[in-house]
Amino acid sequence: MALVVGAPASMAQGADSVEGQTYVIGTDTTFAPFEFRQNGELTGIDMDILHAIAEDEGFQVEVRSLGFSAALAALSANQVDGVIAGMSITDERKQIYDFSEPYFESGVQMAVAKDDEAIKGYEDLKGKTVVAKTGSEGETYAKSIAEQYGFTVKSLDQSATMYESVKAGSAVAVFDDYPVLAYGIAQGNGLKTVTDKVPGGSYGFAVNKGENTALLAAFNDGLAELKANGEYQKILDKYLADPTASTPGNFFDLAVKSFPALMTGLGNTLGVTAISFAIAMALGLIFGFFKISGNIVLRGIATTFVNIFRGTPLLLWAFMFYFGLPQLTGWDISVWTAGILTLSLNAGAYVAEIVRGGIQSVDPGQLEAARSLGLGYGKSMQKVVIPQAFKMMTPSLINQLIISLKDSSLLLAIGFAELLYQGQQIYAANFRVTETLLIVGVIYFVAIMALTKLANYADKRFNK
Amino acid sequence: MSTASEMNSQVKIQVTDLHKSFGSNNVLQGIDLEIREGEVLCVIGPSGSGKSTLLRCLNKLEDITSGTVVVDGFDVTDPKVDINEVRRHVGMVFQHFNLFPHMSVAENIMLAPVELKKMNRTEARAKALELLERVGLKEKADARPASLSGGQKQRVAIARALAMSPGIMLFDEATSALDPEMVGEVLQVIKELADSGMTMVLVTHEMGFAREVADRVVFMADGVVCEQGKPEDLFGNPQQARTQDFLSKVL
């Protein structure tokens, strides 16, 4: 890497080499009009610019929509090659990332609820709470004037949630990047602006400092090309001049429109839960038997396993496996792998306890009777103890399966495209948070009811 | 049974200086015992005397602290001896029956012969029905254990213990958990087994029954054999003060 940096010849060579390459690019989930989902497809200014440049320069991109903070974490972990996420170029960020030429001149603006007549300027904010997006320019600006005008800044992760908290009244105003606000207001997000925009920084495409120089050079090249041939202005106009993204009218339209994306999400939720639970059962059986073993070492291993994964939050392991492990080991860990590791180890710890409890609840006389007939320990467990233990474990196992299914929604934090994540994508684009969450909730409820019925049927069928 | 025939018959179980402790509790403190083929031995004594522990050491359901137990020529304390092989020749009946509740009556009896590859399922089923007929429960072959009375459960448990055609049967207080009206039917089955020439060791509280079926009665107290002899001698003319004291309380 050091050889490449500062050697113009190899830089040029590097720039050529993007052709035919595939780069993984991280982005935000919820930053309309820069990135958002429309009919399941990720679209927006960032996406259009990225794809146009990729086409122009002859490389492929695989976009991972992770969320702003997660995308940056993924970049640091080398899980992605670059990030384009409506990210302002700041001196702080320049310490760790190399930025492209600015591709968008932004600025911050304040918005309040549409029917709010009390807030007409910053001076009306005294004693109130406002929201801004974590790590955004809006947050920096709001904090810089907070003392002067006497208000408090609360930081949230997504534009849509910020707007909801203003509409719900838990904050009186939101500070956000003006194109995002303008787009949201045009979409009918229930807000209005009352102050002028504050000219601010510019957005850039980022790679890790000193890495992927060829990609960065290609991005700059392509951007210059797009600006020269007018394509760039067309993209901006498409989203900012006339944002006619179709917003479904009534609740039924919304449900119908969002259904395909939500079904994809449900599929991923069920898939990751099924695989993880199968692994958790295997882990749980092994460690459950270790726990009742006479061998102190095996018991110690099982107790340690159970205590670690029962004693720490699931979300921590999701971050650890997706962001931490690749940095520690250099392995490429997909979001599926990280998700399955997280869910299966967590559920495995609980299943181990269920298995231990189930086996210990079988009368010891059962094992003695089997052993006295001359059956070995393994055979006795298999034919006599486990069938009885399993019967007692079934309700707890069904319970754990449902908990795991619901816990899988936490994987949205690492950008796993499960059901709730898909819901977020939808309301990030149309700002209809409550209705979308209601639809997602109904789908979860129906799926879990169906699963419970199925599991109870299987229980009756096999444990008669 | 004459003295001469005792001398001639083969030794089935030889217990030598058997000790068994649970932690600091020394339950068996040096037992020496010899059981001959066809002999019916009843072990009596107060609770906590170590009767059941002695019985459970004979097929190594309890780990043996020291001493030796030789069954059919195999030293069960020798780690090289396959204890599962020894147990196939020693049937055991428990106080609480320990039938397998997830299997039918016939399946309980078929389990060992089928799993240990001694018989195929058809043969094992025929054998199970034959054994059930012997204990008078052939019509219950396909019932679940939960639907049986206590006496019926214990008769099935005896049939199960006989499934591998053992040469020795151990009974651990086989009638203690039964309602009084069911004791008779179980004792009847045990008596028929005794009359058929089976080598048996019974831990029991049924003194009348011990007197009737036993060839020899062993009285245990505090982890040792206090006194033993023919039932008419031990019950009729006990020599030891402990024996006299115990019998005065239970008879």
From TrEMBL, chain A:
* GO terms, molecular function: ligand-gated monoatomic ion channel activity
- List the SMART domains: PBPb, PBPe
Q: Which GO terms describe its biological process?
A: amino acid transport
| ABC transmembrane type-1 domain segment(s) | 266-455
Q: Which UniProt keywords apply?
A: Cell membrane, Membrane, Transmembrane, Transmembrane helix, Transport
Q: Name the major location.
A: membrane
Topology of this chain in the membrane: Multi-pass membrane protein
Any one cellular-component term (Gene Ontology): ATP-binding cassette (ABC) transporter complex
Protein name (database record): ABC transporter permease subunit
Q: Where in the cell is it found?
A: Cell membrane
Q: Which family does it belong to?
A: Belongs to the binding-protein-dependent transport system permease family.
Q: Which residues cross the membrane?
A: 270-290, 297-321, 333-352, 437-455
* Xref: Pfam families: BPD_transp_1 (PF00528), SBP_bac_3 (PF00497)
The domain of life for this entry's organism is: Bacteria
Organism name? Glutamicibacter soli
TrEMBL record, chain B:
Q: Where is the ABC transporter domain?
A: 13-247
Q: Does the keyword ATP-binding apply?
A: yes
Q: Which domain of life is it from?
A: Bacteria
For this protein, the record's Gene3D superfamilies field holds: P-loop containing nucleotide triphosphate hydrolases (3.40.50.300)
TM segment ranges: none
Which Gene Ontology molecular-function terms are recorded? ATP binding
Listed A to Z, the keywords are: ATP-binding, Nucleotide-binding, Transport
InterPro entries linked to this entry = AAA+_ATPase, ABC_ATPase_HisP-typ, ABC_transporter-like_ATP-bd, ABC_transporter-like_CS, MetN_ABC_transporter-like, P-loop_NTPase
Q: What is this protein identified as?
A: Polar amino acid transport system ATP-binding protein
This protein's species is: Glutamicibacter protophormiae
